[in-house]
Write a structure and sequence with these properties.
The protein is an alpha/beta fold. Helix content is about 40%, strand content about 25%. The structure holds S-adenosylmethionine. S-adenosylmethionine (SAM) binds near residues 243 and 244.
Length: about 500
């Protein structure tokens, strides 16, 4: 057995899992940890350790909270690997101080609950100071957003561009026969390799290099949570964090990934990335549309959030560990100067899905703002499938049903018999709300799969005493949109 396999055996035996840690320190401490505060978790651990020091508590103290542990306690928590083995693997130093963050990660997919362990660099909390520019990020909010959106269609070869700790590559390795994971950081690749071995995933190849430079191949799936954070380039002394800053001006890195990915997609291949885009004299989503316009790719772009440049600068200066004082003010000024030089007022953040058509020209170009709360991970492949199903289809001949997560809401003036406002609500994914006119409400209400849409439109027109052709012309594009967005199902 290798040392990494020994470590896996120990972590497994200690039940080093998300659920077990939750039980150990409770929901509120877990939530505090999520906010970057470890005191509640530490108090819970100390209470447990008064009685005994179970391996789980020792592992949590060292690798999740980033606190030193006595070598004998770590040796007891890792009986197969041993303390010396942990030192040799670079998990702790000779005195028992942690050198890596290592924590359980779990998710649910088609095959049930999956549990992994993910190693990354120690964060600010453990270090006690700002992270260095070469920091390798653990699994963060953006990571889980992208992995949750992943289209899991089986493919031969997938690419994770900018793999960091390897989390997207590990996810992609579940539906791709082989994955290539790239990064400009040797250390990131080392940690990603470690994580793949620790979790018994053998179908990932790791390559050093920038953007698409190390990959001449074409892929069935490209995923990337790229270093998209807009960072001032001309000011002195602005930290350039490898994990978030691709070294280009403004949003040029995202533009370049969108432009270059086409040459690396197989026909039918899908690319999914997260990104930022700038708003200035031009609307930000129109800017993304322009990047996509000269590609031959289908595109669906969702803007989830828009910040003014002040909020944006504050977010990313704080993320680097500078919270206030003269240095904060200096960096804030540099960010605002940089945005002002390009006339940028806001920055959009969102999800980009691109697909190379199997043949011919692109047929999907959809750019939308969906900035409300979501109800679970949106189903990207469902929209692509619905788009393909709708193409060249005589929808009037189809019998549709209302999706099981959809409800109708009606609002009345007090005492009124008829509603003043009606809408459809989606109970999952983007949780879309669609306003309903009288005709559309009646048509959707009759979509129980038994009658073709054309017959429903005729019947509703008769009921409302309006012209059937006019009602059909009004309702048809609305129904098409409901099918595309998953509120009505074929
Ligand atoms: C935001 S992190 C994403 C890490 C991981 N994929 C995730 O989803 O959590 C971006 C990664 O891109 C890498 N990176 C930065 N510049 C790059 C470049 N020019 N080409 C490839 N990777 C790059 C960074 O080292 C970092 O690991």
């Amino acid at each position: 057995m290798t040392a990494i396999a020994d470590l896996a055996a120990d972590l497994s035996a200690a039940r080093f899992t998300v659920d077990a840690l939750g039980e150990l320190w409770g929901e509120d401490a877990a939530a505090a940890l999520h906010r970057g505060q470890r005191v509640p978790a530490l108090r819970a651990l100390s209470a447990v350790e008064l009685v005994e020091a179970p391996p789980l508590a020792t592992l949590a103290r060292a690798f999740v909270l980033g606190l030193p542990v006595v070598p004998s306690a770590l040796a007891a928590a890792l009986p197969v690997l041993g303390f010396e083995g942990a030192v040799a693997l670079g998990l702790v130093d000779e005195a028992g101080a942690p050198l890596l963050d290592l924590r359980p990660y779990s998710f649910v997919d088609g095959s049930g609950v999956v549990s992994w362990w993910i190693a990354s660099d120690l964060g600010e909390l453990a270090l006690g100071h700002a992270i260095p520019e070469q920091h390798v990020l653990g699994v963060g909010g953006a990571s889980t957003t992208l992995s949750g959106l992943m289209v899991s269609r089986p493919v031969e070869l997938a690419l994770d561009l900018g793999t960091g700790c390897g989390i997207q590559a590990l996810h992609a390795a579940r539906h791709a026969k082989r994955v290539i994971a790239t990064d400009i950081s040797e250390r990131a690749l080392e940690l990603a390799r470690f994580n793949a071995e620790l979790n018994g995933v053998a179908n990932i190849e790791f390559r050093l290099g920038s953007l698409f430079e190390p990959v001449p191949e074409r892929f069935g799936h490209v995923v990337s949570n790229p270093p998209f954070v807009i960072t001032p380039r001309s000011a002195e002394g602005v930290p350039a964090y490898e994990y978030r800053d691709g070294g280009m001006v403004g949003d040029a890195l995202v533009a370049s990934v969108i432009k270059d990915v086409e040459a690396h997609l197989e026909p039918g291949g899908v690319a999914q990335l997260l990104g930022n885009w700038e708003y200035g004299s031009q609307d930000g989503l129109a800017r993304v549309e322009q990047w996509v316009r000269f590609t031959g790719l289908d595109a669906w772009v969702v803007e989830r959030e828009r910040q003014d440049v002040e909020q944006y600068a504050e977010t990313w200066i704080r993320d680097g560990g500078t919270r206030s004082g003269a240095e904060f003010d200096r960096l804030y000024g540099a960010w605002l100067d940089d945005f002002a030089a390009r006339g940028v007022t806001h920055v959009g953040f969102g999800y980009v899905t691109l697909r190379r058509p199997v043949t011919g020209a692109p047929t999907l170009r959809r750019f939308e703002v969906l900035d409300g709360p979501i109800a679970g991970a949106p189903d990207v492949s469902a929209l692509l499938t619905a788009h393909d199903w709708l193409r060249d289809r005589d929808l009037l001949a189809e019998s549709l049903t209302v999706a099981p997560d959809v409800t109708e809401q009606r609002h009345y003036w007090p005492g009124d018999e008829h509603p003043t406002v009606m809408d459809l609500r989606q109970g999952s994914g983007f949780a879309r709300t669609v306003p309903l006119g009288t005709a559309l409400a009646a048509v959707v209400g009759a979509c129980d799969g038994s009658l073709p849409l054309g017959a429903i439109c005729d019947a509703v027109a008769q009921l409302l005493e309006v012209d059937a052709a006019e009602l059909t012309a009004e309702v048809l594009p609305q129904v098409r949109e409901l099918v595309l967005t998953g509120l009505l199902l074929p």
